Amino acid sequence: MTSPVGFTLVQLRYFLVAAERGSMTEASAELHIAQSAVSTAVFNLERDLRVQLFIRRRGRGLTLTPAGERLRQQARDLLGRAREVEREARGSGESLSGPVSVGCFVTLAPYYLPSLFSECTRRHPGIEIDVMEAETDQLVHALAAGRIDFALTYDLGLSAEPDLCGETIARAPAYVIVSADHPLAGQGSVELAELSAEPLVLLDLAHSRDYFRSLVAATGTAPDVRYRTQSYETVRSLVARGLGYSVLNQRPATSQTYGGGEIAELQLRDSGPPLEVKIASVGSVTQTARARAVMDVLREIATRPAEA
To answer: 145 falls in which pLDDT band (50, 70, 90)?
Structure first.
């Protein structure tokens, strides 16, 4: 037999609420119990684990120690698993329900989220998906803090995070866009060196900007960044106006832009390996059944051919 565990799920729950609220008083109010019960549970948890979880300063609330930070993520994961066990024991395991927090890289959102919402609504109506649209660094921080279950993002900036694991579900090769009346518009494919004398409209997001610059620099030329924007559609609209060319990865189903202009897509003959679209998560965290179900839907969406 395995050795008995010295702490309880109740202690973990009280600790987690205290950590999130930063105060024993606020935790007791949220839990609708006496403050002494929260304090005692946390004290006993520290005693059983033989670690200090909080730094307590009079008038300044609670600050997690490094051990407390580690336990917060582990407690959240363990309590989530305990709720799944409870649902299974009650016979409700077949019907998935509850929240799933998904992070999504901003430029991937229009391509994946509509299908994700519609498919999950049809298959798993009890699952409530909450989405955080952000850039890579913000998604990485949210994963580390446990604010999201997993993230859908490009493989840009992930390799520097040893605690993260990523599963590739799609590959997106780089391509060039020019205005519909550009001399090269009907050519079908192009090398970046052919556009070296023209201004570059840069999608100016962290990691993305370095990636696009590196593609141009690999041709032996310095990119002439004339315009920059953090909006994917603004990039397309500027290019449609003839203000330069750009390099992108995801392909919209239409060549029309918000401003009424039109762009032409050109395959890149010297683009190098495609960007990988990944499901990123914290390796030490066991995903809930509902989070795994949402991941399965994303995998299916990624394998579908693009709509005409």
So the answer is: confident
pLDDT digit string, tens, across residues 250-289: 999 999 999 899 999 999 998 778 999 999 999 878 888 8
* Burial group, residue 254, by CB count within 10 angstroms (0-12, 13-18, 19+): exposed
All residues at 6 or more sequence positions from 257 whose CB lies less than 8 Å from its CB, including other chains: 233, 236, 237, 240, 263
> Strands, DSSP E only, in the chain?
54-57, 61-64, 98-105, 127-134, 150-154, 164-172, 175-179, 189-190, 200-203, 225-229, 246-248, 263-268, 275-282
Strands 98-105 and 150-154: parallel
Taking residue 194's Cβ as centre, other Cβ atoms within 10 Å add up to 16
| Residue 121 to residues 114, 205, 295, 306, Cα–Cα distance (Å) | 11, 31, 14, 21
Model pTM?
A: 0.70
- On the CB side of 33, how many CA atoms lie within 13 Å of its CA? 14
Q: What share of the chain is helix, strand, coil (3-state, %, to 5)?
A: 40, 25, 35
